[in-house]
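User: For this week's homework, look closely at the record that follows, marking any run of repeated tokens, and judge whether sequence predicts the tokens.
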Amino acid sequence: MRDDDAPFIVCDQRRRDLPATVRSPANMSSSLAAFKAAGGGSLCIRNSRAPRDIDALMKRIHEPDSDVQLFVCVRNRHRRLTLTGTASIDVPPLQLRGVELPRIADEYAQEAIASLGVTNRCFTLEDKARVMQYCAQSLDDIEKATLRVVAIRATDNLSQAAARLGMAPVSLHRWMARRLPMVLHPELPG
């Protein structure tokens, strides 16, 4: 519960910056300015009129020393989302996350190495480069490719690798021919 004297600030970018009156609370179009003014009190924003700098506001609200209580006004049809504490997370497409691909491939490779109980030598830098080049359409594709490459590198032939993966050797061979134009073993065609 806040003091009666605690500030109550509205952040609506469509309205001008105005001081509080008897009829309406103070308004600021910048969420960071509104956050500062609302110190020790409350800040109110409308979901449909979220400020442009909302991401900066959310960072400030979640800082340990924040003493501002945030209210988000939403229309009835969206009310359930806010009551459950649900927040949307926008994940950019994998094609726009090129800088992250090496780490993603490394993480899936380490997972594959651990699940198959093999050494790190079963996934080379060349393997990672090929997976990123030929199999980076989705996270599932990267995961599948790294697991299969590790299994192939850890065994003597495609039949053994397929057995470790629980799949038919012909399916593994076809997948390799379509997805990874590479030589994994001397006896395998490139």
Q: What stands out?
A: Residues 8-83 form one domain.
